[in-house]
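Good morning,

Attaching, inline, the backbone tokens for the sequence recovery test we're adding to the shared suite. The designed sequence is right after.
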């Protein structure tokens, strides 16, 4: 495991009352300034409904105590990384391995 030089914030989707008896889905900050190791894995571009979109897949490692789930997202600088999967890193005890995507409608 290399150094965790990057800093991310963790956001979790939450339901908040919309004032009309319903709920709106919003993102709330769970933690900030979390050390992480981030590596780009792959990228692709596609045209959907006439709109060109690109997506990048990322591999993120951070301390396991942050308990990130696939319902969360990470904020890394100006990028929003949707967590696709979250699991204990099989090669590093106490480290959580996340697979994330950016470039989609997040």
């Amino acid at each position: 495991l290399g150094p965790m030089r990057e800093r991310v914030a963790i956001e979790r989707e939450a339901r908040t009352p919309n004032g009309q008896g319903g709920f709106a889905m919003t993102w709330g900050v769970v933690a900030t300034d979390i050390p992480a190791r981030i590596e780009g894995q792959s990228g692709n571009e596609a045209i959907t409904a006439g709109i060109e979109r690109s997506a990048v897949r990322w591999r993120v490692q951070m301390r396991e105590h942050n308990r990130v789930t696939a319902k969360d997202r990470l904020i890394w600088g100006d990028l929003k990384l949707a967590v696709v999967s979250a699991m204990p890193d099989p090669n590093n005890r106490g480290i959580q391995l996340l697979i994330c995507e950016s470039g989609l409608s997040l």
